[in-house]
Amino acid sequence: MTDLQRTATSGFENAFGSEPHGLWTAPGRVNIIGEHTDYNDGFVFPMAIDRRTVAAVRRRDDDRIRVSSSFSPEIVEVSVRALDPDALHGWSAYPLGVAWALGQFGAPLQEVPGVDIYIHSDVPVGAGLSSSAAIEASVAVALNEIWHLDHDRRTLAKICQLAENRAVGAPTGIMDQSASLLGRRDCGVFLDCRSLETDVIPLGFEEHDLELLVIDTRVEHAHVSGGYAARRASCEAGAAALGADSLRDVTVGDLERARELLDDETFRRVRHVVTENQRVLDTVRTLREHGPTSIGELLVASHASMRDDFEISVPELDLAVETSMAAGAIGSRMTGGGFGGAAIALVPVALASAVAEAVTAAFAQASFTAPTIFPVRPAAGATRESWPSPPLPANCHFRLVPAARTSVE
Ligand code: GLA
């Protein structure tokens, strides 16, 4: 058992006075490339990281669902029968939102047994590493098993996205949840967000002695409000003006026409998404043909597009990218939703400390808050970790009825 899992287990015991039936974990993610393309039906290429969230869970004999966590001592308790996405608030909206969303995908919430859930995580919060998707995915795999639902990973990703959109209220796409559920060691997850087809692609970081540094600017971001929703609205307006269902259907060759039809700001939002989709495809091809040391220029071009066209970078992220490139990084870009959070830098292991020192010095020089810099490795997706005693009761006290599935595509 890892320290993280031990702490989750003892946290569960302190909160609820008994042992969990099992531990399920899910990773955070960094996006290698493909930003703000997911909700435009486009392409993304994220990877799961070796920072994880643990959900320690025990099945109950009644209808109560109780959640607690190491970052908030309160215990939130509701009936599984009465879950209402509009009544969920604060961090508990993530785990309880997943339970509600499972109901929307056919789980018989009027019959399933209650559960106690304790959450503990080492995914930094607010850094753009998808700590929220990690909570959702860990709870989703746990309840999928305990409630005998048998959903595949793609469906679980949709369920987690629905929880995030409706219960938390953040209008995000499906990338983070897919990365957390589908990741594999030393691999990236290439995802077509329209068909939801995925291809898990070896990154070769280990073989080439490369490391991915996360540079957390400590400028906190939130996707529930503000710029994220505004960018999404611009993309939808741009697609509609071009007569397309989504920006996925607009190509680089259509950009001249788009420039004539759209106002300057909407045009630049559209250009970012259209060229970013192409960069994802180019990155995956380059990786396959020439290996990871050749994808640097595409990462830097992605950052420039987010800085200039999509306008979601901040001075701290720009400085992190410029400084790490000057110090010898192969490629660097901001990652995630933007407006703060983290940048990534792909570096030879031998240069990692020099790059980190250069960025720290540049931040001090600019009088920015000191960044937190650490390496991440491409890691496995959500999984059940262990099965401590007492075992999960084998008998199933509820009847799983094939309920009509709500269509929430
Ligand atoms: C956040 C969202 C994702 C995606 C990215 C931007 O991480 O949760 O769905 O839109 O921003 O690429």
Describe the model.
The chain is 38% helix and 22% strand. It is α+β, with helices and mostly antiparallel strands. Strands 1, 2, 3, 4, 5, 6, 7 and 12 form an eight-stranded mixed sheet that branches. A four-stranded antiparallel sheet has the order 9-10-8-11. α3 crosses α4 and α3 (131-146) packs across α5 (175-182). The longest helix has 27 residues, at 264-290.
List the keywords.
409 residues, disordered C terminus, four-stranded antiparallel beta sheet, single chain, eight-stranded mixed beta sheet, alpha+beta, binds alpha-D-galactopyranose, globular, 11 helices
Short description:
This protein is an alpha+beta fold and 409 residues long.
Give the helix/strand layout:
Elements: H1 3-16, E1 22-33, E2 43-59, E3 64-69, E4 72-79, H2 93-104, E5 115-121, H3 131-146, H4 153-168, H5 175-182, E6 187-192, E7 198-202, E8 210-216, H6 227-241, H7 255-261, H8 264-290, H9 296-308, H10 315-326, E9 331-335, E10 342-348, H11 352-365, E11 372-376, E12 383-386
Parallel strand pairs: 3-5
Antiparallel strand pairs: 1-2, 1-12, 2-5, 2-6, 3-4, 6-7, 8-10, 8-11, 9-10
Bound molecules: alpha-D-galactopyranose (GLA).
